[in-house]
Amino acid sequence: MKAESALFAGVSLFFAVSGFVYGWFSAEPAGTAALAVSCPMSALVALFLWHRHRKDGQLPQDEKGAPVHVTAGPVAFFPPRSAFPVLAAVGTALLGLGAVYGLWLFLIGAGVLAPGILGFVFQYGSRDT
Question: Whole-prediction pTM value?
């Protein structure tokens, strides 16, 4: 994770420099604000990866000559089927439509979206990793 940390630190530095240059030469505040927010966001990811590297040590993927069978393993757990993505998508669409058509539809969208998000979070909470 050392390489990933350095990569995101470089991205953060890029956003800092380009945000400063953009803010200096442009009178448009939205781009400057977007670049100013992107810098600490990428720095936060770099800090997290650096912290994980210090805590966990070097991963097999960090070694240059690591054979494939050493770095292979289970990638992740992918659930076979779930209704929660559809529920979250419908809730998000209703939220967007509610912003246009009125508070009543927005509240219905929030009521549909909340179980979708909670289902995503807690569906496999009791599953052992």
Answer: 0.56
